[in-house]
Structures are given as C-alpha cells and as structure tokens.
Amino acid sequence: MNPMKAVLDYLKANRIRNVDELCEYLRFPSVSAQSKHAPDMKACGEWLVRHCQRIGLRADLVTTQGHPLVLATTRNPKSAAKNRKHFVVYGHYDVQPAEPFELWTTPPFEPRLEGSRLFARGASDNKGQNFAHLKAVEAYVKTGTPLPCDLTFVIEGEEEVGSKSLPAFLKARKKELACDAFVVSDTGMPAKGVPALTYGLRGIAAFEVTLHGPSRDLHSGVFGGSIENPAMALCKLIAQLRDGQGRINIPGFYDDVTPLTAYERKQMARLPFKEASYRKMLGVPKLFGERGYTFTEQRSARPTLEINGLTSGYQGEGSKTIVPAWARAKLTIRLAPDQNPKRVMQLVLKHLKRLCPPTVRLEITAGHGAEPYVVSPEGTQAQAALRALRAAFGKEPVLLREGGSIPIVNEFKRILGVDTLLLGLGLPDDNVHSPNEKFELDCFEKGQRMSALLWQELSAA
Ligand code: BES
Ligand code: ZN
Questions:
Q1: Ligand 2 centroid – CA 126 distance (Å)
Q2: How far from each other are the two terminal CA atoms of the chain, in whole angstroms?
Q3: Would the CB of 430 count as within 6 Å of ligand 1?
Q4: How far is the CA of 230 from the centre of ligand 2 (A)?
C-alpha cells in the first residue's frame, strides 16, 4: 500500500479536531508589540511546546532577549542519521495588534467559524498556515509512517516586530539548524485553489519622525501665527517624500532598484487579479500607484513609502484649540531588490534634514530593517515544492513575488547559507493585519496535504 495513503487518510479523518486545536491556539492574544501581552506570549509558547510534544516531537521553549521561541524536532539527537536530509519549518506565533477592536464582528481572540472561514487575529498570519505543517508531521507520527527526512520547527514570537532575537539564536544553534532548506508558509496565494510558490519578497526600512515645536501645547489663539505648528510642518515634510503617483522623491532612492525582467512582467500579468474586484475588495474609490506599472507590480515588486501612524495634538472628544508641542509619524519603506535598508535610511535622513524648516526640531529614530529577498524558482527544491503544491491542490501552481516582508529569510541565507521555500496558504482577502482576519479551511486542509507530500518530494529531489 502507498504509505502516503495512511497519512492523507489520517488528515482527512482528523479534519474537525485539527480545526478545534487551531481555535485553541488562536485564543492566545500573542501580540508581540504590546508589553502588556508578554504573559500571553509566554503562555502561547508553552501551549505550543506541549502541543508539539503531544504529537510526538521533542520540543522546548527557548528563552531569548525578547519573547521566547519554540524549537521542536522529529530528530533523536542520539540516533540522528548523517545522510538523511533535514528541513527546518519556520513560522511565528506572534500576531499583529488587533486594534481597532470595534471593527471586529466578533472579538479577535475568540475564534469564530463561519461556513468555511475561521475568523481570529493570527488565523492566517501565521498560526493557521504554520499549524498545517505541524498537523502533517503529526499524521506521519501517529500513523507510524516513516518520514523520509528529519524535520525541525522554529516558531518564533517576534516576527511582527522585526525578529530581533532570532539571528543570535541561529548563530548559537548553527549545528542543530544546519539543513537542506527552510520551509515557510507565511505568504499568500492569488486566489482560492490556486497554489503558489513565492520567489521574492520586498524588504523594509522602518523609522519614526518627530517634529518638536513649543515646549508644551499652547493656546492657538494666543500664540498661533507666530510660531510653526509641528503637525502642519510634519504633514508638509512627509508629503514631499513622494509625488502624486507614489514615486518616491528622495534623491538616489531608485539607484539600486533592479528593473523587473520582461519575463517576470509577463508572468505577473497572467495572475488572476481583476482591477474592479481588487478595488472592491479593498473598498477604495480608485486605485493609486506608480505610473507605468500594473497594480500587481506596484504592490509586489516596486518600492513604496507609507505612513503607518500619525499622531499629534488633541485626539479626544470635541475640540481643543492648541498649537501642539510635537507631531510624530511612523513610516515604513518597502524595498525592492537590490535596495539595502541601511543605505536607504541614510538617504532618507539626509533628505529629511535638508527639508526640515528651522522653526521645529527634527528627531528621527530608525526602526527595524530587512533586505528584499529573491531566489530562483528553477532550482531542484523549488521544482519539488511545485510538485507537492500541484498534487495537493490539483492545480498548476503559479510563481509569485510578494510585497510583504519576512526579514529572517535573509538571515537563514547569511548565517546558515540556506535558501527558503515560501509556500504561502493565505488569500488576498484574509485581512492580515486588519480587522476580521480569517483563514479558509480549504487552505488549511490543502496546506496540510501539501506539507505531507512536500517531505516526499524534497527528500527525493
Ligand atoms: N506574513 C507576513 C509577511 C507577508 C504577508 C509576506 C503577505 C507576503 C505576503 C509577515 O507576518 C509580516 O507581516 N511581516 C512584516 C514584517 C515587518 C514587521 C518587519 C511585514 O511585512 O510588515
Ligand atoms: Zn504579519
């Protein structure tokens, strides 16, 4: 009998239990950005360790400078066979803040199943996607089907805040993590039932700009007109950073951007995205973007500069007539290959200093940064992954470049010399980082199947 039949049958037979377990996982408000959730982070990590142990893995919660990470493996360190292939599955149990809560139909940490959609913060990004891999391993272990390779899981708690502790961990555990490839399901597919291999991600450079005006909020009637308003100055300053088409106005900014090849542009044009439905899904009256590029290109392979947050003055009920003491913006730039976050930040700093009027004091704090990532989809491992995707979904996979960032994949390459296979299970309308995040059970189930088949394909490749 085909040993894979037992594994796939097990996944089918345990469909409902797998969803229940994912719900249990989703109940932890593991928001890495908010310090009040530090105890929830730890509790979530501990739950995950116990879960890994229950499905037959050796698992530990590893403390770091920040939030702990989960390390789990199918390997028995004593009897680890040298000539077996080894793959590391990376994922994250931390989630983005769920605010604004009032926009959620039901509370973000009380998972709700509606038809074939599971709603909760982290359902798609990344608990659900990563959990599919754990369920696949469980199926091998519980059916006594020998895995053709060794597998290790690294599930961190700081992805959404820039993976600060992970490089040190990778360096410290270089031997244990030496592997043939990293496998990550933390990206997307273009539509339900259309599997994808992502071969490129944008990089990121995060920073905050604060303009300081008077030493305290002042009466705008008494003093307004004689001093600069920092909120006004900040709006003007930031507005100058890009033109009306979204092209970034920072000298030298595009110097290192590698143009898309004609082949890539042709592939991107084939993706099943329609402008009208895209616009409707996002609720915008009209699309916006750099001239000369399709919206698929704009959002996945071209750089962009965004305000992520903007704060100044009085935000409470009613009005308050003041000139605020300060104004602050949180910004991120998404980088295209081969831009470098450090170099780009230098350009930004220089430019902002030049633009800032002498009537306010400029303060810039650089945040996390990551390089863009691109890997050839033509290698033997990518081809093996495509076979697993094809078999699990029963449909020809597409090749994608995506606009989001997974900073750590660059470190996998730099520190361990290993490439990453990005096999996303999310959908464009999953509302990741937005209210009412959801994950489709179809993606969850086919993802489990894909993972089960992947180890066969990769081990034989
Ligand atoms: N899963 C996303 C990254 C992603 C989403 C890639 C969709 C491709 C398609 C990940 O959890 C994420 O949100 N990363 C952050 C990284 C940042 C905080 C350094 C991002 O892209 O904003
Ligand atoms: Zn995310």
A1: 7
A2: 22
A3: no
A4: 32
Instruction: Give the burial class of 92: count Cβ atoms within 10 A of its Cβ; 0-12 exposed, 13-18 middle, 19 or more buried.
Output: buried
Mean pLDDT computed over every residue of the chain:
96
For atom 4 of ligand 1, which residue has the closest CA?
404
Distance from the Cα of residue 358 to its chain's centroid: 39
Which residues lie closer than 8 Å to 377 by C-beta, 6 or more apart? 197, 199, 386, 399
Report whether pLDDT(76) > 90: no
User: Does the C-beta of 188 come closer than 6 Å to ligand 1?
Assistant: yes
Ligand 1 and 45: CB distance under 6 A: no
Q: What is the pLDDT of residues 393-403, one digit of tens each?
A: 999 999 999 99
Which ligand has the nearest atom to the CA of 400?
A: 1
pLDDT digits (tens, 9 = 90+) for 292-325: 999 999 999 999 999 999 999 999 999 999 999 9
For residue 125, the ligand 1 atom closest to its alpha carbon is 1
Q: Is the CB of 371 under 6 A from ligand 1?
A: no
Rounded Cα distance between 51 and 372, Å, is 33
Which domains are delineated in the chain?
3-201+373-460 (3.40.630.10), 203-257+303-370 (3.30.70.360)
Q: Which pLDDT does position 281 carry in this prediction?
A: 92
Residue 97: count of CB within 10 angstroms of its CB: 16
Residue 89: strand pairing partners? 153, 183
- Give the model confidence (pLDDT) of 1-57 as tens digits: 688 999 999 999 999 999 999 999 999 999 999 999 999 999 999 999 999 999 999
Q: For residue range 208-260, what is the model confidence (pLDDT) as tens digits? A: 999 999 999 999 999 999 999 999 999 999 999 999 999 999 999 999 999 99
160 lines ligand 1 (CB under 6 A): yes
Considering only CA atoms, give the Rg of the chain.
23
